[in-house]
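debug: dumping io for the single-chain case to check the tokenizer round-trip. Nothing else runs in this session.
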Amino acid sequence: MGQMLDGLWVDDAALGAIRADGSWTRAPSVIRHQIGEGAEFPPVPGRYRLYAAWNCPWAHRVLLTRALLGLGDAIPVSYVAPARTDQGWVFDRATGYTDDLLGKAALHEVYAAGDPDYTGRVTVPLVYDTVTGTLVSNESADLVRMLPRAFAGVARRPLDLYPLALRSEIDRWNDKIHAKVNNGVYRTGFAESQSAYDSAVYEVFATLDAIEERLSQSPYLAGDQLTEADVRLFPTLAGFDVAYYIAFKCCRRRITDYPHLWRYARGLYALPGVADTVRFDIYRRGYFSRSDKRNPLGIVPTAPVIDWSL
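debug: decoded output
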């Protein structure tokens, strides 16, 4: 994998770093402008292009938010191909993954178009401003929070995913889920020592156990209302049994083994627009793609038989 240095694509080892103890850590996003009334970028429908990948859980958060709100017309999407190359995320006209806004061949070219001096990771999601030709944000947590407010006036299904009365509870779950589930499966899968793996996998399942207990008492994480905490958890649940369970050695339990968590996951999947953001087969093929460390032969296992319908 590579990244950009002063607007140029350069080779690099990974999208994160391996520490001396063999544990993996994710580098932070650096493009974090705001969209909203009175903000640097005004909330104008059709002005912004979202770049996403079907198999990126961070992009999935934003696709979920867009779908739940019914913002398909207000925020168009361009998808990169669901497999990275030595150029990082790329487009592939032969399989229908095209940059129909700028006509670029690789996502790093979109970054360079929006910031000729950009230095950092080339990731999805990315929001690009078509009026000024600049990069707005590549931080999924910021986008999940800002889109419901910024585009409330044009959303077909307006939602307050961060209600004032529930913010402390949402923040508590966000912190726990981000560190120990969303990042936790990657820390498990990318661990390069037994101790790093043991620590990471323990935290994944201790947190899933805590979520199971919470959902035995409440329909959603923060209470009776869908919030951004649920949006941030769902992508990891969607990819868990088909990918993380085996590919990342998160094999203590499947999501289908948790009665309350499995009911909850299927309930989220049944919400308007959510199923259209999920691509189970892409997750499976992507996480089992050839990797010298994780899957040197590139053999993709058969899909598990799972019914997500209620």
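debug: round-trip ok. DSSP finds nine helices and eight strands in the chain.
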